[in-house]
């Protein structure tokens, strides 16, 4: 968010949509680091809410928990994961019990866990980049 | 002078980003961030703000529940990740609808809409004992004391007096901020009434000169507080 003429010095992992990130934050790498840091701080709690809702067969809370977490992935540059959350939310909308969602739930849990790892790795890289170059 | 604003958002990263956009704009001062409707209402009922950035789905009550319970109506910008709420946004006459995440450019477009809406609402409604409304190609003066109530008709509102009805292009939301609050009170999403004209109240309706007007649950306590009940 530093103005129109910005550089793209940091090379994001290819799984991140770097153009999307630049469209949100331009080359404000310190702020992107902050976004990753905040996301990681809250990730486990948000994830726990999803797991708890599923294990207690609370479809409404499951939908809400996924809905809450969904935009996080857009903010960190993983819009595909955001879209996967949206699809899961839509499936929840149609389901009558969490049992119907077991396969999709297991898949989304894996996707979210992988996403957390990706964010954590990118956060470390970015932190190092910022301390060296800014 | 900056607009005062409040962010009601349960996702921290989204709230932080929004606060940063506000700061960058130089137009908005963020007075608070709340993660649920209850805390936001407690603040907003004690402190009036110009702009409300409002998420829809939060733990407990929704952003729309907050709007139903708010005693006044600031400019509202909905921030949500669900496009499905666009219709409700239209119904609640919000100023803009930002789908998360949004770019700063898109945020600026919302600010432009805020500016335009703020300009529109500065119509000739500043006098304390009367207002002027645009009606049939002229500006018509209505004394506050002659107005019984104001009713929403979509993009129009109807000013009802004892002997005439005036229809003008406006919204309850705009008027709520502009009418003299000593005389007028919002009792329902679609009605502002002259508190001095109430004949009686029964259950969830009040009556003014034979007109039955609904009182929403959210506004009933405020209405009763304003009455001289002995």
What shape does the CA trace of chain A take?
A: elongated
Oligomeric form:
heterodimer
Mean pLDDT of chain B: 87
CATH architecture descriptor of chain A = Up-down Bundle
Strand content of chain A: under 5%
Which class do the helix and strand fractions of chain A yield?
mainly alpha
| Helix segment tally of chain B | 7
Helicity range of chain B:
25-40%
The chain pair with the largest interface is: A-B, 22 and 18 residues
* Approximate strand percentage of chain B: 25-35%
> What is the C-level CATH assignment of chain A?
Mainly Alpha
Number of distinct helices of chain A: 5
Shape of chain B: globular
Any descriptors?
heterodimer; A: 134 residues; Four Helix Bundle (Hemerythrin (Met), subunit A); 5 helices; B: alpha/beta; 7 helices; 33% strand
3D architecture notes:
- The complex is a heterodimer of chains A (134) and B (230).
- Helix content of chain A is 75%, strand content 0%.
- Chain A has 134 residues and is mostly helical.
- Chain A has one domain: Up-down Bundle (Four Helix Bundle (Hemerythrin (Met), subunit A)).
- Chain A starts with 17 loop residues before the first helix and ends with a helix.
- The mean pLDDT of chain A is 92.
- By secondary structure, chain B is α/β, with parallel strands linked by helices.
- In chain B, 30% of the residues lie in helices and 33% in strands.
- In chain B, helix 2 runs parallel beside helix 3.
- The relative contact order of chain B is 0.10.
- Chains A and B meet through helix 2 and helix 3 of A and helix 1 of B.
Write the layout of secondary structure elements.
The complex is a heterodimer of chains A (134) and B (230).
Chain A: H1 18-25, H2 29-55, H3 59-75, H4 79-94, H5 102-133
Helix pairs in contact in A: 2-3, 2-5, 3-4, 4-5
Chain B: E1 3-8, H1 12-25, E2 28-34, H2 37-44, E3 51-54, H3 63-69, E4 75-80, H4 86-91, E5 96-99, H5 104-121, E6 130-135, E7 138-143, E8 147-153, E9 156-161, E10 165-169, H6 172-178, E11 184-188, E12 191-194, E13 200-202, E14 205-208, E15 211-214, H7 217-226
Parallel strand pairs in B: 1-2, 1-3, 3-4, 4-5
Antiparallel strand pairs in B: 6-7, 8-9, 8-12, 9-10, 11-12, 13-14, 14-15
């Amino acid at each position: 968010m530093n103005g129109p003429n910005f550089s793209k010095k940091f090379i994001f992992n290819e799984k991140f949509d770097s153009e999307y990130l630049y469209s949100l934050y331009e080359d404000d790498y310190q702020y992107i680091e902050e976004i990753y840091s905040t996301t990681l701080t809250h990730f486990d709690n948000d994830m726990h809410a999803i797991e708890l809702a599923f294990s207690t067969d609370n479809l409404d809370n499951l939908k809400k928990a996924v809905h809450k977490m969904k935009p996080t992935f857009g903010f960190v540059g993983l819009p595909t994961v955001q879209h996967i959350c949206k699809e899961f939310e839509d499936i929840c909308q149609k389901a009558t019990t969490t049992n119907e969602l077991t396969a999709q739930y297991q898949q989304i849990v894996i996707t979210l866990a992988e996403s957390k790892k990706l964010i954590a790795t990118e956060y470390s890289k970015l932190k190092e980049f910022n301390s060296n170059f800014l | 002078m900056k607009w005062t604003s409040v962010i009601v958002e349960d996702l921290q990263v989204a709230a932080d980003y929004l606060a940063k956009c506000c700061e960058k704009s130089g137009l908005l001062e963020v007075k608070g961030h709340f993660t649920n409707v209850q805390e936001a209402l407690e603040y907003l009922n004690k402190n009036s703000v110009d702009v409300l950035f409002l998420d829809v789905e939060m733990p407990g009550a929704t952003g729309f529940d907050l709007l139903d319970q708010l005693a006044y109506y600031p400019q509202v910008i909905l921030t949500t990740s669900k496009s499905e709420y666009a219709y409700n946004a239209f119904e609640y006459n919000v100023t803009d609808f930002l789908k998360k995440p949004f770019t700063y450019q898109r945020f600026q477009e919302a600010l432009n809409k805020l500016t335009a809406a703020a300009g529109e609402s500065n119509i000739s409604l500043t006098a304390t004992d009367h207002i002027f409304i645009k009606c049939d190609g002229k500006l018509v003066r209505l004394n506050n004391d002659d107005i019984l109530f104001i009713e929403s008709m979509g993009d129009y509102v109807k000013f009802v007096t004892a002997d005439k009805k005036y229809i003008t292009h406006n919204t309850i939301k705009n008027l709520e901020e502009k009418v003299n609050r000593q005389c007028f009170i919002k009792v329902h999403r679609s009605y502002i009434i002259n508190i001095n004209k109430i004949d009686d109240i029964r259950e969830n309706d009040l009556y003014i000169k034979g007109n039955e007007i609904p009182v929403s649950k959210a506004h009933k306590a405020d209405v009763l507080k304003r009455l001289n009940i002995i």
